[in-house]
Amino acid sequence: xxxxxxxxxxxxxxxxxxxxxxxxxxxxxxxxxxxxxxxxxxxxxxxxxxxxxxxxxxxxxxxxxxxxxxxxxxxxxxxxxxxxxxxxxxxxxxxxxxxxxxxxxxxxxxxxxxxxxxxxxxxxxxxxxxxxxxxxxxxxxxxxxxxxxxxxxxxxxxxxxxxxxxxxxxxxxxxxxxxxxxxxxxxxxxxxxxxxxxxxxxxxxxxxxxxxxxxxxxxxxxxxxxxxxxxxxxxxxxxxxxxxxxxxxxxxxxxxxxxxxxxxxxxxxxxxxxxxxxxxxxxxxxxxxxxxxxxxxxxxxxxxxxxxxxxxxxxxxxxxxxxxxxxxxxxxxxxxxxxxxxxxxxxxxxxxxxxxxxxxxxxxxxxxxxxxxxxxxxxxxxxxxxxxxxxxxxxxxxxxxxxxxxxxxxxxxxxxxxxxxxxxxxxxxxxxxxxxxxxxxxxxxxxxxxxxxxxxxxxxxxxxxxxxxxxxxxxxxxxxxxxxxxxxxxxxxxxxxxxxxxxxxxxxxxxxxxxxxxxxxxxxxxxxxxxxxxxxxxxxxxxxxxxxxxxxxxxxxxxxxxxxxxxxxxxxxxxxxxxxxxxxxxxxxxxxxxxxxxxxxxxxxxxxxxxxxxxxxxxxxxxxxxxxxxxxxxxxxxxxxxxxxxxxxxxxxxxxxxxxxxxxxxxxxxxxxxxxxxxxxxxxxxxxxxxxxxxxxxxxxxxxxxxxxxxxxxxxxxxxxxxxxxxxxxxxxxxxxxxxxxxxxxxxxxxxxxxxxxxxxxxxxxxxxxxxxxxxxxxxxxxxxxxxxxxxxxxxxxxxxxxxxxxxxxxxxxxxxxxxxxxxxxxxxxxxxxxxxxxxxxxxxxxxxxxxxxxxxxxxxxxxxxxxxxxxxxxxxxxxxxxxxxxxxxxxxxxxxxxxxxxxxxxxxxxxxxxxxxxxxxxxxxxxxxxxxxxxxxxxxxxxxxxxxxxxxxxxxxxxxxxxxxxxxxxxxxxxxxxxxxxxxxxxxxxxxxxxxxxxxxxxxxxxxxxxxxxxxxxxxxxxxxxxxxxxxxxxxxxxxxxxxxxxxxxxxxxxxxxxxxxxxxxxxxxxxxxxxxxxxxxxxxxxxxxxxxxxxxxxxxxxxxxxxxxxxxxxxxxxxxxxxxxxxxxxxxxxxxxxxxxxxxxxxxxxxxxxxxxxxxxxxxxxxxxxxxxxxxxxxxxxxxxxxxxxxxxxxxxxxxxxxxxxxxxxxxxxxxxxxxxxxxxxxxxxxxxxxxxxxxxxxxxxxxxxxxxxxxxxxxxxxxxxxxxxxxxxxxxxxxxxxxxxxxxxxxxxxxxxxxxxxxxxxxxxxxxxxxxxxxxxxxxxxxxxxxxxxxxxxxxxxxxxxxxxxxxxxxxxxxxxxxxxxxxxxxxxxxxxxxxxxxxxxxxxxxxxxxxxxxxxxxxxxxxxxxxxxxxxxxxxxxxxxxxxxxxxxxxxxxxxxxxxxxx
Length: 1451
What we know:
With 1451 residues, the chain is mostly helical. It is 67% helix and 5% strand. The radius of gyration is 48 Å and the shape is elongated.
């Protein structure tokens, strides 16, 4: 060896090595072929070049060294003393080239040379140990490439042999100890045999003992021992191993100061150990330190450094883990960038390229889970596929790549729902498991992953075999993870989840109980403060919640809530799981609210849902769920408090959710359904049919997504059917009911006898058929309904929770058929069914009182048929028992009082026992004591009392009417004016006010008569005027008034909702509490200035003000008497008895309606004669007696106001007269106006007039409306109005295409004077649908009422039938003219029947000529006089029926 080489080895000066190489080259040049020193010269030059390669990594040096060693070897035959040295050194250079280039032939050749060298170094040879060691290293490297365990096992035996040659005191013993320890560690990693790992640790300890402080390899030994301890910790979970590993790594780092060649390795090793401890104990400080150490290691590996890619990779992995702990996306983004940089350094062919592909894929996967960008997930899958392709069969990491690719496919399946992804993932997990036999370290992971995917496939396809296999796999996993194993908590959790799933399928509570115990065990393994604890808190909470739903133990529900709270506390702002915890806690609070009704739970749930939604921005995969959940909670609050803004917001949220679920989205069906349900709810509150129509269309769309065979098809069919039936109830379109029945039939066909929804489907179809029977009277429908109810009952045996309902439904159907066919067998069977239902309601059962009542009613019906007093006696006993269960505090007490009273009166009429009569009315007299009375049943009971008192001439009749009308006031106060319930009330009580008026008159209580008729007539207008206007005034009063108004609205809504439920008896306590609160609010409102009469009916002293500007004549028709009362401003009412019956008035009305509808026909004179005949009858029997009294109080030419009730509202009282020569009709004496109620007239006068200069006039004309006949003279009529009005008022005209619904409403909101020329479209069946025909559709009463106008004054409705109202309850005065008056117009002119186009122009011209006074001013109070003069002037120019068609309403 030259001096230069020696100096290089001492001083590490490359210039010395370069000089040595040049000298060696020169020496070789002096040794030609055959020279005895040629082999030595070749060998020396090869050694020097190999050394320079190790310093400079120049491959040409290595290649040349190999060729020189080959040449030297060729010169050293088998017996040459230095042949073994040449074999060994040639093997070393080939081994290094393999390490540099990865060519397996180089490694195979190196191994063969190592074997040959060893063969030349028998026992006792000084270099035998070195050869053993070299061959072992080569075999170990080949094992790492080819995974042949035989290589690894042989290498271990070779290292053992080398160690045996290096006894205690040998200078290289520490090296052999270390080498054997490392290769045993490798075999442990592959086979998982703990004895290998334990032996490796002891060998490393022995090596470390031989490398005391100051030893150059001490830091390496410290690191190696730390690594083996770290791995034993991973396998056995003993914290002392991990703590010792960290201390060893710290000691190693301390021995590698700045500039030390192993400093980067030591930094990295310590970082990995700290990372491991952080993962176990959740100490984020360990993870932060690990990241800083990785950063420091990376700085020591600049571009071009062979370890740079590994440092990039390690730092990236730690950042990803910190992201998983803290949720800072910046960590994950940086990790991805670092992985990309590492991958760029590991080109195709690089041994670590597969690792980089895998790590990059994992980080992209993590980012997808946060941001929901499917592009990240798709890219992750492709990287995993690329990594797998680089790990063929036999590769030690193939199972890892199979597992990772499967996991990413799992996630994509969860997003897109493509089952091929899940199927592929399962096959990949099976393949991974096959590569991880018993004893393999990762076998438990593969078992777990396969189990999780099988469970997921079960959830999709419902194959129980998948679920059962998953459970068995999870049990196998748990067996491989004994107490202390770091993954035991997740195994406990996964087995719990699968058992939970099986519980949901089979209902075996033992599965759920076991799941809960497993969840508890998992939670115990995660101490307080551990970041992983949140998930286990969450899982245990979910299982407890489900057990609560099975067993009803509120303690389970309360504990679940506290667990969810604890989980949320561990997920602060920025944590990736925070939105899940917010949502879970919100959901379970929703459930507790449903159990206990505590609004605080619901309010908290809403705020939590809002917070979750705020974290799930557009693009987040769970945004749709958050929108839907928040919407559902808001709807629940709406149902409690009645704040429509909650329902409106819920609908908007459902609309937003639907927008995120395009066609093909798995949640589209749910979103369509949810939005439909809320629109239906809003329809029920506000009555807007557009909401119901939209709900129906949404249900149709949902149904379209449920093709034949879809699991939800029967549910979807039923939902659509229910909404169509609701629309039928509103519009009475039998096509809707027919379609609903067909849909119910289709739903039933999808529910075979064993289907759990079959009984519900049978019931729904039966109810719809019974509804159709009630409409068409088709007994086949009723017969079929009965058979369906029988079938439903058969599916609900004793013990079934719905058997009681089925018994009752079948009984009701049979009773209805009895009423049609009078087959006593039906009634008998109904009674037996009611008895059976009663038997299911023992003492204490909430439904017992109702069951007693229903059976009593049926027995009374049989008594009425057969006269068996035993039935009546039993009915009375049952009614008494029902009453005893309904003390004064119960909501349905009035029903029991009424039923028992009716039964007692029936027995009185049979047996004439006065005690029955006295007891019946004693019961009725308890009704006024019911302070809570706001339900329909209370009202109907009072009505029944009044009817019984009238029939039996009992002295309590007037009290009965006062009670009934008081109940009506309270009930109407909580109703929505447009709801179907309001319609039911209006029709059911249509005569009560007139009968009360008659009773009061007969009792001589004239002022009471005025108060009662005002209280009970025009219920719709009264409800709006008495409640909406004062509430508006209260709301704008600010402070306490505003708060009380809102509280009143909410309580009214909650009472209405409670009363609408079928189980009202069950909710008696709740309703009672609500009414106590409601009464308290009313009392507080009445204490405010100007609100002392809030919700109280007006007194006569208030109503008398209606007569201040002229008498008001109330004309009343009742089945008991017909009367008129004249209201004067300064004295009690004056009574005029009318010599006519209600039946005769009704006949007059029908005749007159027919005649006016045919006026102008070919037989005009005959029709005219008949009209005059009706007017003469009106004069003789009604108007003339009234006129006779009026003439005593007011002079001729004065104004009077007609206030007709019942059928009188449809008769032209103003046109009555003898129609004879030398006689005068009523119009000769007085100028007539009309008013629907006294209160309406008083309010109109109270409004006062605005300054004329600030008023605006609009004329709206529509000659060519959508779908209606053209009106020829509209344009001319608008011109007439413009000519007469424009000089005096600001004037606007809307006509033709400008006269749209929106345009008209917008203009009405800004103008004070209105002239409307168009078609009037009365709807006597559905008066709220009455309308004016506009260019693009109908301007309905409903729309007009909802429009808030600015101080309106006057409206001339130049349209047909504008004062024609509800056919069923004309007393309500729900017609176009009344709508205009209610909306604020003080003075309105309308028509009672069709008006001729030509005639209207003449009347309009004369009217406006008379409306404007000499000073050019217009006053709406002159409208009645102007109409009176116009008709008088045109008397000889226009047909008679047209002269009397127009009437004035208002001031």
